[in-house]
Amino acid sequence: MVRRRESPGYPNVSDTANHSLLDAFISIHVNAGGKGAETFCYWRYGAGGRLAASIQNPLVYGKSLGFGRYGLLKNGIRVKKGDEMQKIPIQAFLADDIISVEGGKNLEQLSQARKKDHVFEITNTAIERVPVVKTPLFSDLQNNFLASLHREVLRIAKLENAGKEVALVTTISFGRPIKVLGDEHSVNIEQSSPVNALKMNAYMGELVVAHNHPTTRNFSFSDIGVFVIDEYIATLSVVTNQGQVYVMQKSADFHYDEARQLINALVDQYELLDCPEDEARQEAAAKEFLKKTRKVGIWYGTSK
Question: Domain range for residue 270?
Fold first, then answer.
């Protein structure tokens, strides 16, 4: 292992790395602004991507660190053209992380603010009649598996959680899902150790998350935020307690930066951070985002 720090003399760190016969090149720095940790790699589905994910996950989900999530990004970075090392430049935290926990609290405030309507009782008829939504990124078999996942969400919510929120998390191969129970207003998969363990062994864009809304609500604004920011989630769905289904999927043309910009613009437009308990503002912001999903490479569909 070779450790080398930048100094006023500006040493050629990449040249040192290329002459050291190293297996990996890891660069850590603090950026001037923003929140969260971001990790770059040349190709997220190769060995470098797996190494980058193994670094990014503890930064975001580790109990001792817990930086905000900014993303694992494919950047095409090379220390030297044609070199053999895996390159992992890391922004371990951005300068605004001095107050970044505040951003996390704001998201929590938004997620806790969805307190409208009563909890609808889940009937066996509603479970049986959950429809299959034909999503473009799944085969017919996968779409049927997704419908089965929705039925299982409602069954668990009915039998184990008094109709309150439940999330099932699995991969696109639809193996045995991880169950997370929530309350009347939200379910937090990010605090689930089994879900975080699943992410540690998954590729980006491999997870499917299905959850119920006890009311008849569509995606909440906090749902949308989690979907956009979490690079592991490829498909997020909502099934209401009455059996309506809403699905979002990240397409091959998904634009992370543009989606984040849209979210930030809507937060400002509807003053969501100043009025975190205003459900009408959150609902309006969510509806506005769902109208513009194609512009940022997100497919959105419903059972209606």
Answer: 113-302
